[in-house]
Amino acid sequence: MSLGETLAVLTEAAGFDMSPRSERPVRARCGRLLKVLLCGKCSFDCAYCAVRTKREAYALAPADLARAFLTMHREGRADGLFLSSGIPRDVDETMAGILETGEILRTSGFTGYLHLKVLPGAARADIAEAARLADRISINLEAPSASRLSEVAGVKDYRQDIEKRQAWIADAMPGRHTTQVVVGAAGESDAEILTCMERQYRRLGTARVYYSAFTPLTGTPLQGRPPAPLWRQNRLYQVDALVRAYGWRADGVADVLDGDGFLTDADPKILLAREMPPVDVNAAPYADLLRVPGIGPEGARRILDARRRRPLHSGADLRRCGVAHRAAGYLVFEERDVQTTLFAF
User: Fold this and answer.
1) Same domain, 130 and 153
2) What CA–CA distance (Å, rounded) separates 84 from 137?
3) Which of 201, 234, 258 represents a domain boundary (last residue)?
4) Stretch 157-185: mean pLDDT
């Protein structure tokens, strides 16, 4: 198989790792991100993973992958690289290949975005080296707790292979590391994910937690399990924004969960605002403005800045602050309801 054909196979196999384009690289903007595996075969037994089903050991040598990526970069077909790998035999051997690829890229003059995956059980020295080379590094939790991971992966030790390594990652690259949770593979509730989410942001300083709705794959032990609905993944991202970007505590967001600890298919911010009294645009502090559906952190800051110059009196004033239409029913100007005014603009 040619280099190009092997690269295509390994690029397709890397699709399970979430890395939305909203990721903001440190060294350079990254519009076109090449996601690829160094090796497409894995000896681990994760029951949800497509890589474990691969019988052909497709792999690229670090020098070949680096050369192929640099060619794509020069031709304008790729701005950055997200590099992960299956683990065909030994973790240290595979990490060495990932690091060698990164080293070749940097010594060849590539200064763009590089995201290197840290594998479960990686050595601390390898994690430090990955942090030196990359703009972002990550290790996947896959499940919110040790007990949940044990239901779908027997080889990985959650506390030793993942949590311990993630603590090392947080030390090596504070605020610039990410992780991923597979939603629905292990039967976990959203309450469990919410607890995990808060720990990631409050204790470990994780830059982003990504959520991937479980999809059963033919040839895996979970092929008969129903898929997680995509809306569940999307609602978790909305809750994540409230915890990560808004700074809300998990226990304050938990009111949106049903009696079994699951989210419903409704905007969590709107659900939390149902019993909220009207918010006075000209008097409310930042935290109260942030609770209004349709007002995000930037909109709340713009309102505070605008009203320092003069009171806000109309929907047009709010529109200039970037306030969305759905905020109408939650706002008043000095006790005067402005819903009609807001809908008018």
Assistant:
1) no
2) 10
3) 258
4) 97
User: What would the DSSP string read from start to end of 30-94?
Assistant: -SSEEEEESBS---S--TT-SGGG--S--B--HHHHHHHHHHHHHTTS-SEEEEE---SS-HHHH
Other CB atoms within 10 Å distance of the CB of residue 107: 10
Q: What one-character DSSP code corresponds to residue 25?
A: -
Whole-number Å distance between alpha carbons of 268 and 270: 5
Phi, psi dihedral angles at 117 (to 5 degrees):
-85, 135
Q: What is the pLDDT of residues 245-257, one digit of tens each?
A: 999 999 999 999 9
Relative to beta strand 113-117, strand 208-213 is unpaired
| Structural domain contains residue 268 | no
Overall number of domains in the chain = 3
Question: Between 124-133 and 164-172, two packed helices, what is the crossing angle to 10 degrees?
Answer: 40
Question: How far, in Å, are 24, 118, 249, 321, 341 from residue 301 at the CA level?
Answer: 21, 37, 20, 9, 22
User: Which residue pairs from 216-219 have beta carbons closer than 8 angstroms and sit at least 24 positions apart in sequence?
Assistant: 216/48, 217/48, 217/49, 217/50, 217/53, 218/53, 219/53
**Which residue, among 239, 316, 315, has the nearest Cα to 270 in the 3D structure?**
239
Distance CA 337, CA 120 (A): 55
Q: How far apart are CA 230 and CA 335, in angstroms?
A: 40
Nearest to 183 by CA among 214, 227, 226: 214
Owning domain of residue 338: 273-344
One-letter amino acid identity for 118?
V
> For residue 263, is it within any domain?
no
- What are 116-131's pLDDT values in tens digits? 999 999 999 999 999 9
Same domain, 77 and 208: no
| Token representation of residue 217 | 């794959």
